[in-house]
Amino acid sequence: MNTKELLSKLISFDSQCTKSNKDIAMFIASLFPKDLVTVGKFKSKQGLDLYNVAVKISGENSNLPPLIFSGHTDTVPISGNWETDPFVAAEEAGMIIGLGAVDMKGGVAALIKTALDLIDNQPQRDCYFLFDADEEGDGYGGQRFINQYQFKNADIVIAEPTDKKIIIGQKGVMELKITFNGKEQHVSRADQFYNEKYNAIYKAVKAINEIKIIERQLNAIENKRFSPPTLTVCQINGGTGVNIIPSKTEMVVSCRFLPTQDFLAVKQQIINQMKNIDPQVAVDELLIGEANLVNSDNQLVIACSRVSRVVIGQASMDVFTGWTQAGVYKQWGNCLIWGPGGLKLAHTAGEYVSVADIEIMEKCYQSLAKNG
């Protein structure tokens, strides 16, 4: 099965994060000898049956720290206006179009081809290929791998789309749900004093103004590598009727913070300001994803740069403003992001990836495993 055929097959599986990924996981597992594969089944937060697949290729020297390649099998839900069937790979000018083509079944295809090659061409050290579920959901798959393996001093490459650039850092993410409670009353009996004290939406308005102040403070932080940290109100929900004072309002804020920042201090600042508005406010963590930064003179970065110059003809380094599981897997060792396709196409209708880019990254991964 060549790269284009493999990618087309991966796209044909409906592995939206709102569904089980069993079919694509079992397909990936079937491509390898059974003694090399471990399949782990678990439940998602929503009760879905999900599956992680791990492939281990033993190296010449198992005493060396392992090299780990990571890719997720799930996609975001279908959105936007697709002009083609999202689950039937369409080809146009060397590009393969389909749901998850760039994020990140193109990267998964490159990892599969690399692992198959290493079966016959033994790598320098033990190589693990981790295909996780739920990355686009609650991230349970990645956390399952963390609990399953206790790697130390490992080198990790995440095959997310990077335009073949070596991504050495990313911002962290903190998502908080803020809940204000009030007291219901018919609007005809609620004056301004009542609204200020009991209207849950009024409390949320005050909260947004305080969030904007913290946002301005964060936006003023300068960093040589990264754009400023951000803080945004992303969701708000409150009220039950047009003639009833709302007794509850929920809002979600998202903060993207720098590797050098104390995000817990930012969280506490938000909590303090919310409690000034209402001491009974509830602030709950929805997601904390750590930032990541690897020094440019790190041995993994040097090895990837060397491979990139040989295979691609140049080595470009950059950082992400978004978040990937590098923030999870970094506890195993040095973690960077390096994969085929353009990140800007991720989560868009009609996303696509170049077969040539995938094949280039196959050569990069194979070279890194054999020589890095």
Question: Would you mind describing this structure in some detail?
Answer:
By secondary structure, the chain is an alpha/beta fold. It has helices spanning 3-12, 22-30, 101-120, 140-148, 192-198, 200-219, 263-277, 299-311, 326-329, 355-371, and strands at 37-43, 49-57, 67-72, 90-92, 95-97, 127-132, 154-158, 166-170, 172-181, 230-238, 248-257, 282-289, 292-293, 317-320, 333-337, 352-354. It has two domains: 3-170 and 292-371, Zn peptidases (Aminopeptidase, 3-Layer(aba) Sandwich); 172-289, Alpha-Beta Plaits (2-Layer Sandwich), CATH 3.30.70.360. It is built from ten helices and 16 strands. Strands 1-2-6-3-7-15 form a six-stranded mixed beta sheet, with helices on both faces. It has a four-stranded antiparallel beta sheet with strand order 10-11-9-12, with helices on one face. A hairpin with a 5-residue loop joins strand 1 (37-43) and strand 2 (49-57). The radius of gyration is 23 Å and the shape is elongated.
